Amino acid sequence: MLRSEGIMDVSDIDFFKVKTGGTATKLTAVLDNRSATLRPKLNFYNSGKAHIAERYLDTHGANLSIEIDAKPDTEYYVRVWNYNRGTDGAYTLTVREK
């Protein structure tokens, strides 16, 4: 999955639903920061919408990735938002399974 999006203001939060294939064991989300201002934060949630992983950087314009153990044929959610709720900017999110 590849999506170009943006955190348009400091209150914006983006969610993406992904479903793993039949042989997935890992799921990786990679945020390519296309702005000089966004301080990115990524979260993974399981199919029951329980929080399972988080990663953030307190660096404006930083790229970010996070990897989780995944189950085959399972839905997960990725949340993209800004660390400390004080920045905005464009990004591209790529989610891959292994």
Label this structure with key terms.
98 residues, mainly beta, four-stranded antiparallel β-sheet, elongated
Short characterization:
The chain has about 100 residues and is mainly beta.
Question: What does the secondary structure layout of this molecule look like, with pairings?
Answer:
Elements: E1 2-7, E2 14-19, E3 26-33, E4 40-45, E5 51-56, E6 64-69, E7 75-82, E8 89-97
Antiparallel strand pairs: 1-8, 2-7, 3-6, 3-8, 4-5, 4-7
Q: How far do the termini sit from each other?
A: 13 Å
Please write the string of helix (H) and strand (E) elements: EEEEEEEE
Shape summary: elongated
> Strands of the biggest beta sheet: in what spatial order?
1-8-3-6
The tally of beta strands, per DSSP, is 8
- Low-confidence stretches at least 5 residues in length (pLDDT < 50)? none
Secondary-structure-derived class? mainly beta
How much of the sequence lies in strands comes to: over 45%
Helix percent reads: under 10%
Radius of gyration: 13 Å
